[in-house]
């Protein structure tokens, strides 16, 4: 049943990067503003139409980034009347879509703008290892676990122990994702990659190799949402937000309830699919967070695409590569396209472009329903969004 | 010149734990209502939300629940330690805690390996509970 205030995505934009760095010269907020403007203009709107502003990032902390929506609203020269600065890590933007959808349905805003920007590569500022040793982190930081990779390595180690998954299984994911990147001119890493390449790359934090880890790049992206009714007058084909869910369990790695199972993804996925009224067989394209190869394996199991423990078999034989039975991370993912620190924005942009049919060589034929799942922190948070061609 | 390693910023929740470690004991909170231990120390029990808690000296024995061998350090302060084993230790009493497994042979560390606490003094104020395989 359709309703005039059903939430839809009507604008998308991302910033060009080259060798992982922004092409345009602008500050981190400048890039946020440029993609925001491009996304509203693509829809046939202007920034003055925006009354809902949602953002999350790592810039300007301590300082103006502590009040991120306030600072961004000021930079854009707008006065939003609905804001959400939810920051649950890389999955924040999936949660933002959910929160904007609720605000739109409620009539609390008309045009919601979700924005992300990071210049971590240009600034060489990525330093997630320096989690100050206060509160819960006083019991983790002093022991020198490499962050964030160490927590994912511990999860991988446990998954291998409980279910017999292997480094080869994880490498399948990196290789399949690279094949998608080779079809995406905007992807950062497009050179051929083999399973042996992954297995022989430098060991970072056992059992994860360098090529099990995502890229470190700049990146900025924006999404504009409005109601189905308002979208009728706009320039783009609206993409319907049919379902959403979110959950989080821990920040300290020792507090993760089950190292081999991704409970937030299980919870968020169930909620989102139930709301959308879809089952696994309805999903044509899947975009899931790939900070590390193990993130993907745990996510596919938790979302129920295969049984817990069977993720290794599920991704074997390049099933997630172009032409495979399970099209996934079709832009080349965080592993090969870009990863500016909080990657979830780009999962949403790619899924929406697939549903619009705008993906050129990497277009998944007949893509009508997409599942997007973001993961944040150290397997801490999960948020799922189900999108559908309207 | 080596870069100093991060030290815990001790607070009211954690002070008795760190004080015990300085004295060579592993003391963690025990709930007077549900009877479960927890770690890290909190003002309420994360299992049943009771505030009827006291610190209890535990066995210091447990097993490696999972681990990683850091081949790259977590920043320059840890560069001299590479390779080193960071592990989640599941204590006999139930809770898990992050620590190090002290060993000359990182490859020998396995999930399920039995371990026992060993105290390593860092400064006059801070002693860390590390673990050794037994
Ligand atoms: Zn209790």
Please explain how this structure is put together.
The complex is a heterodimer of chains A (390) and B (134). In chain A, 61% of the residues are buried. Chain A has two domains: 141 residues, 3-Layer(aba) Sandwich (Peroxisomal Thiolase, Chain A, domain 1); 216 residues, Peroxisomal Thiolase, Chain A, domain 1, CATH 3.40.47. Chain A contains 13 helices and 13 strands. In chain A, helix 2 links the parallel strand 4 and strand 5. In chain B, the strands form two sheets. Chain B has a five-stranded antiparallel sheet. A two-stranded antiparallel ribbon of chain B has the order 1-2. Chain B starts with 14 loop residues before the first helix and ends with a strand. The longest helix of chain B has 8 residues. In chain B, strand 4 and strand 5 form a beta hairpin. Chain B has a single domain, classed as OB fold (Dihydrolipoamide Acetyltransferase, E2P). With 134 residues, chain B is mainly β. At the A-B interface, helix 5 and strand 7 of A face strand 3, strand 4 and strand 5 of B.
